[in-house]
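Retro notes
What went well: the complex prediction finally ran end to end.
Inputs used:
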Amino acid sequence: MSATVAWRYGRPALVLLLAGLAVGVPLWLVAVTSAKPQAESIKPNLDLPRHWQPGGNYADAVGQGEMLRGFLNSLLVVVPSVVLVLLLGAGAAWVFARRKSKLVSTAYALCISGLLLPPAVITIVMELRQLGLAGSRPGMIAVYTGMYLSTSIFFMTGFIRAIPMELEEAARIDGATPWRIFRRIVLPLLRPVIATATIMVMLYAWSDVFYAFFVLGGGERATLPLNLYQVASAQLYLNNWHLVFAYVVVMSLPMVAVFVVGQRKIVSGITSGAVK
Amino acid sequence: MADTVVHTREQTSAQGAPKGVGRLPRAAVHHPWWFALPALVVFAGFFLLPNLLNFYYPFTNWSSYHADIAFTGLDNFRTVADDGSLLRAIRTTLLYALLAALFQNGFGLVLALLLESDSRFNRFFRAVFFLPVLISALATGYVFQALLDQDGALNSVLGTDIPWLGSTTWTLVVVTLIHGWKWMGLSMLIYLAGLKGIPGDMLEAARMDGAGPWRTFWSVRWPMLAPAVTFNVTTALIGSMNTFDIVQATTGGGPAAATEVFNIYMFRVFGQGLYAQASAMSLVLFLVVVAVAIPLVVGLRRREQLL
């Protein structure tokens, strides 16, 4: 009995303590440092700024960090990648879920092998050069789409298998073509899993710096994470924690916003997709 | 106008359908392959093909110093083996993956058990612990660099002078702890889903039989969590073999290459223009992942059947 009592009162206290230490402290550090002048942020600490200048720091991060260009560049590769991953993935998942043959299961196994296998990033660069896509947005979009298709196909195939075939058959009797059935029945039914796939792919692609480094490099088409990497690499010479953290805040906000808006669907989608 | 077109096409297909059903298997008519074709083309072109090419370029002298590419046999592998980076990268990456998966799953499971019931309090804190998942790994790395630097926030709070990121032995553990911190929210969600999937009457029955919380956990909940464990451990272990951002942002592979995992090596050597050598490491990473993934998935699946 006393164990139950301890759990009833101890648990919330433990949760508060853990949240405060594990999540609160790092976030606090980011928030206060991003509002400090450079002189105060050379040695990062948890003190409140003696002199507040958040506006100046954020303006500098936007200006020196090429933030607006980075933001636009990120949007221009992430949005098309997500759309392609979802559309192509849904088409493939529909076929994989509904047809049964050796060929289909082989194709499915190959397509989800990307869940485990690492992308061969160095030879991707070589291939893109030969295709004339190196350093270009279409090249980056193709690489992200190829990499994350596995995730969406895996989640969507499982999901479609659970949809009763009768729904499609009813439409077929009314004379609907496969394309019409796909567009009017399958895609709308996929909504919850589309929400999950969207957030997963966005999460990866929005914060990716590794593949973007190989495919896009720095320069004009650099995405937000590449810019952040540039800003922070300059750290060696100028110690600009205040700018780095202003950048971190701005870069993270879109993802937090997407999560807040889609939270319900994301959680239910992840749970129904991963554990059955 | 557009409507008329669609309408006519529907009618023809309605008339054509019974004929098709007679000759072809149903699925071929109703779920044609060309729906899967675009995905297959992109996936084959930008995932499978590079991985196939990765079995050729490591055996060449491809670099920014040669105009054309010539076959050189095992030279690249000899170079990375002789300077010690090959074995070191394998060891570091495997150790990283093991520890990162351990921390991520441990933290995730504890959080899931703490926040299991659906109260408003719990829902709020689930979102709080999910926040690190939403912050990019690169940003996470910088946050912890500021926290753990010798001149950083933690030492200033503790009044110590410990080089948290400067030990050739312990820094790898510190970095994997950060990795676990970043991804614990995702593991938590999946464990929560697993816990939700346990039938209530099963727990009720265990309680009626006089099982305490510990007994219930080990005899009922843990076995029922098997699918969640499979998913979480596999994705965490395999995913963290592909790590880059957190390591790059906190240590850059140092000190003295103590945290130089495969992707850090590739990044560094590619930057030096030694493309074929980087691609040799990429091939080794591929082989190591395959060697770990296959027994892991098979083993965990079998474990699920047993439990």
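What we learned: The two ends of chain B are 61 Å apart (CA to CA).
What to try next: split runs per interface for comparison.
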